């Protein structure tokens, strides 16, 4: 079951669309001038899922929200962001490492994100799958949070991994 998100818009002023290689930086990051995300649309019925989604690692993962945005200078380059809660990736208390979670993100792209877009007649130049150990507003920084991101280029029914 998918229920409406409490977020009505994605505020992305100076918020990176995804963490750059090596992790997010506190200042001068990609989101402030290089590829700032401009909200394109918030999917009308997207966001919080009531039940955990099955992933290869077996960790509990739930859909937090789905956002569409468009980067400046790239007309027609819509990015679909699927944000998931995955508490077991937490530093210190978690049991799932990035190496274990990477196949989960691949799986979520191919089995959830692409069908989700296809069912709604939407296309995206990139699909970003993010896992977070806690709920965070889009673009927010929290040094205590653990987040993993991967970007994919949809290619038919497949997700092709894209390096940042």
From TrEMBL:
InterPro entries to which the protein is assigned, alphabetical: DUF6497
Protein name per its UniProtKB record: Acetolactate synthase
